[in-house]
Amino acid sequence: MEKKSTVRVAAVQIAPDLTSREKTLARVLDAIREAAAKGAELIVFPETFVPWYPYFSFVLPPVLSGREHVRLYEEAVTVPSAATQSVAAAAREHGIVVALGVNERDHGTLYNTQLLFDADGTLILKRRKITPTFHERMIWGQGDASGLKVVDSAVGRLGALACWEHYNPLARYALMAQHEEIHIAQFPGSMVGPIFADQMEVTIRHHALESGCFVVNSTGWLSDEQIASITPDQGLQKALRGGCMTAIISPEGKHVVPPLTEGEGILIADLDMSLIVKRKRMMDSVGHYARPELLHLVMDGRATAPMTDASLLSTPDIAPTRTKTDGELPLDRNADQRVAVLRSPAG
User: Which residue intervals define the domain CN hydrolase in the entry (predicted)?
Assistant: First the structure.
């Protein structure tokens, strides 16, 4: 795929519809059309935007959050589904790469999931937040590292993290080591107050500098009416304001356009991809500025599963091509079982 010299991107800051997945999805499709009409080749939506971020869990105690939690289950997205197919169709129709945050339902568990659709509508990445933060642990399950990967797209190499995953330096380094060119960052927005926006800005600007990539960050927005619908307590309502920093950052750590910190809107910016080499010529964290013989990351990128069918495991008399040695990670999840058998007295 030919490298692009310039990529036009869009970062969206809009409010979900807190009553319906389909109504929020309609807002997504409208924003895709609007951004595409302005020439955008990549559009980024906020964290778990469809159907909505679980703001209720930040202000309601668990004993009072059951009804809203169940409602989130009912409106959540399965992958694939008619909801994801409609986004894929919009991406294909408008020739635009789409980064969408969803509450994904997988049977009895919800996950904070990031979906990346290429410009031809292909779902090129589905990843789940590896560790939900604080109140979120009552809402979502944990993801694994199988989604910590950078994928090729029509606009370049894309990596993605959600919210406070950006405080996990090893998760960020995993994407840096795979040479991401545009990093997708998604936060909920409308939470905690101005300090959240300040911290978010520091985090995404630092990642751009350290990775030598562009960062496109999208945060959500809540209206006063929506905040009141979540909690009538005016003191708690303060916790659902501020914290918005929709922004587009260059590899030099600078805002490409002024950030959006209040209200709804779509930021549009042209990314000069030559700035990546300009930055990395001076400091490549995973290349000439690295010392892998001293410090390097070992990541277990295998997908986890709650059950393994024993009939699919290798039998004891069929030796694997190579087994692990002490202190070495197994080659695959089945290797754990094989090594145990081969080392048993009866083996």
Answer: 7-273
